[in-house]
Design a protein that fits this description.
With 233 residues, this protein is an alpha+beta fold. It is 38% helix and 13% strand. The protein has eight helices and seven strands, in the order H-E-E-E-E-H-E-H-H-H-H-E-E-H-H. A hairpin with a 4-residue loop joins strand 1 and strand 2.
């Protein structure tokens, strides 16, 4: 089976979305990429999570051509491919319609950083894309969705803010692997829920102080991070 290890990881990442309550029925998808071979493994379209096996995961090239697999890939494949082409360091992409993050996307409102939980994973507010035009929607919609995310990140580091809200649609997250992309989807939903509760309690809440925001992000990320254990060389 081509890319068996990647297929197994992508399947497990998709199942993690289910375990964390981020998807219903066949909503959502996760993919992973083998950069060396230029191949992507992605959830098949419309297949129930409980029925999937590694062999059901579809392998495509970066142009969307199926290389291995008997099923149709996720309808969001073109969006995933654009993110892989534009964000050089990512190894996995996840898309959900999780409740709170999707609500922020529907409100076309970025998620501000109100506290250190957000700052631990996102070095700034989680941005929202602009709306797609009628022509973009009628054309190659999934491709245009990916391009909208990439345009929004023209001046944002995708490694520091590994998620975006697509206006009127929902969240996409990414990471160094399919596993990390699913993890970031769960964290995104968690901070989206807390941000909603924060504004319900105090609509006038302002963003976290920049110094504290930076401290919490940089103690976990970057060359001077000190959170967690040192990995063996």
């Amino acid at each position: 089976m081509l890319l068996q290890t990647l297929r197994e990881e992508v399947l497990e990442a998709n199942l993690e979305l289910v375990r964390r309550g981020l998807v219903l029925y066949t909503f959502g998808n996760v993919s992973g990429i083998d950069r060396g071979q230029g191949l992507v493994a992605i959830k098949p379209s419309g297949v129930p999570y409980e029925a999937m096996t590694p062999v059901d995961i579809v392998i495509t090239d970066l142009e969307g051509k199926i290389v291995d697999g008997k099923l149709r890939p996720s309808s969001d494949l073109a969006t995933h491919l654009e993110l892989y082409k534009h964000f050089a360091h990512i190894g996995g992409v996840a898309h959900t319609h999780s409740e709170y993050a999707t609500a922020w996307a529907q409100a076309e409102t970025e998620i501000p950083c109100f506290g250190t939980t957000h700052a631990d994973s996102f070095h700034g507010p989680v941005p929202v894309t602009g709306r797609l035009s009628e022509e973009q929607i009628a054309g190659d919609y999934e491709l245009e969705t990916g391009l909208a995310i990439c345009r929004r990140f023209a001046e944002i580091d995708p490694d520091s803010i590994p998620a975006a809200l697509v206006a009127g649609h929902g969240p996409f997250s990414w990471g160094t692997s399919a596993t990390e992309a699913a993890h970031n989807s769960a964290i995104l939903e968690y901070v989206a829920r807390m941000a909603s509760h924060t504004l319900a309690l105090n609509p006038g809440t302002g963003p976290l102080a920049r110094a504290l925001h930076d401290k919490h992000f940089l103690r976990k990320h970057g060359s001077h991070a000190y959170y967690g254990q040192v990995k063996a060389q």
